[in-house]
Amino acid sequence: MTKGAIVTAAGVMLLIGGGGTLAVWNVQQNAEVGTIASGDLNLVASEGVWTVAAADGPITIPNINNYQIVPGDTLTYTQTVDITLDGDNIAANLSVVNPAGVNTNFAQGTYTTSPVTLVKDGEEIANPLDENDDVTNAVASVTFDFLESTDGRDSVDATYDFSAVAFKLDQIAPANPVVP
Amino acid sequence: MPRRPIRAAKGAALLAAGVALGLTAVGGSYALWNKLVPAGTGTVRSADFLITLTGSNNTGTYNMVLADGTPATVALSSAAAPLDQLFPDTPVYAGVSVGNATAAGSAFTVKATLPQPALITDNGPGTGLAQYMSVQSAAATDLTQCPTLPADAYKDSFPGVLIPKGGSAVICFKIQLTAAAPSALQGQSASIAVPLFVNQIS
């Protein structure tokens, strides 16, 4: 008990010594620096849908990986993409990664397809994008037509792999930052 | 006085360091915001054109196209299960069941046709049996129907039969020996080949 009491007393003395340093001139001013807020860059793709053309309108394919096409089938993939660009000096380029897909064993002349494109209101989205270019419901699409003119057993058990297709939004440094 | 060059050198060194830092900072600007979103597009795959043939008289079931891509030949009779003996005006019957076993995702209807006449060949030179034989065909739903179809169901030409995905159809053959066949042909035999074509319709 005696040792404990001594240690406590020494501690109190130290606190008193420190408090003494406040007793000098000091002044404080608000800098009014404000708050820095960052913007946003985002790309959100909804789940895409494959359909097959039919006389009564397109029919949705639940899982393209389980669907086997035959000559005469026309498949269309559609997907909506939303782009967010918030920032007073933000700029970005939108690109489709691996748009062409990979053909394995579809014979030339038995099919047609085109690279995946991303369009808004029927026009391909032009780069660079800036803060005024928030886009909702841009449409990515690709069509695969297995031609009726396919003869014999051409292109049976073939695949065309679009699984590596992706969309990428890359911020680019603005050439001349603008302060609003 | 001699210290001034040293100060200048120090200043240059600081400037160089500043430039180096600046370059490093510019290099860092490549790591700007970016986002990659997989499209999840998947893989388009084609179906197989799989047609099965099952011959009458228990001769087995075969794929119409063999693994090496060549067309299969399906016997409709065998030594163990030959056709009935053929007499003038007493036809014998055989048939083949054609199955549409595709895994196509959409409707995949095929049409089986016999665009070429049966090719009848004497077994052995100079027998002359083939010239007295004829083959007619008819569509059915089961191989057992071939002997029981009405006589007028059999035609010289076969118009074709539609087979939906997963379905099958039977083509029956009626083989006849004309009444004019001479008795000298007794005990002779002939082979009949009927080319079968299957086309995708839809």
Which secondary-structure class do the elements of chain A indicate? mainly beta
E-strand count of chain B: 12
Provide the number of structural domains of chain B. 2
Overall geometric form of chain B: elongated
* Uncertain parts of chain A: 1-19
**Please, what is the oligomeric state?**
heterodimer
Outline type of chain A: elongated
Order of helices and strands of chain B: HEEEEEEEEEEEE
Instruction: Round the Cα radius of gyration of chain A to an integer and report it.
Output: 32 Å
Arithmetic mean of pLDDT of chain A: 85
- Low-pLDDT segments, ≥5 res of chain B: 8-29
SS summary, helix count of chain A: 1
Gap from first CA to last CA of chain A: 69 Å
Listing every helix as H and every strand as E from the N terminus to the C terminus, the arrangement of chain A reads: HEEEEEEEEEEEEEE
Tell me which protein chains meet in the greatest interface and how many residues each side has.
A-B, 55 and 29 residues
N- and C-termini, Cα separation of chain B: 99 Å
Question: How many domains in all of chain A?
Answer: 1
Number of helices of chain B: 1
Task: Using brief descriptors, characterize the structure shown.
heterodimer, A: about 180 residues, mainly beta, 1 helix, 14 strands, disordered N terminus, B: about 200 residues, alpha+beta, five-stranded antiparallel sheet, about 30% strand, elongated
